[in-house]
């Protein structure tokens, strides 16, 4: 093994010296832990769960009712992943039938602050994005009209 190379399969720092490389750039390989964490916390279901759990505990059925379009299985998978990552705490109350509640951990709370910034940015720029989409769609519609029928999307 080359000197300076980690034996850990999930280690994603490069052994190549890139000089003045951007320190905020992460490795884009699938086995990079930073990419794996970003994939987890940035998916739409995780973002919604984290947003809903701000300063409160919710039961599974309450979360499912609040998140339009999520299946029971997808909510289960999302909650388990967030719990595994230490972002959500699951509490089972010893009653019949069992009552299970979910809440953000302190770590999850720090992520919520970041998500709030993203939502604030989105709200501030939604009209610009809508205008850009409209302009793009108009250009694409015009370009498609110039193509033969068999080449159109």
Quick synopsis:
With 153 residues, the protein is mainly alpha-helical. The protein has helices spanning 33-41, 44-52, 60-66, 72-84, 106-146, and strands at residues 58-59, 88-93, 99-104.
Features:
Arc Repressor Mutant, subunit A, mainly alpha, 3 strands, 9% strand, 153 residues, 5 helices, 2 domains, disordered N terminus
Going across the major beta sheet, what is the strand order? 1-3-2
Determine Rg (CA atoms, Å). Answer: 22 Å
Main sheet makeup: 3 strands, antiparallel
Give the second-level CATH assignment, the architecture of the largest domain.
Orthogonal Bundle
The rough form would be described as elongated
- Residue stretches low in confidence (pLDDT < 50, at least 5 long) are 1-11, 14-18
CATH topology grouping of the largest domain? Arc Repressor Mutant, subunit A
Helix content: 40-55%
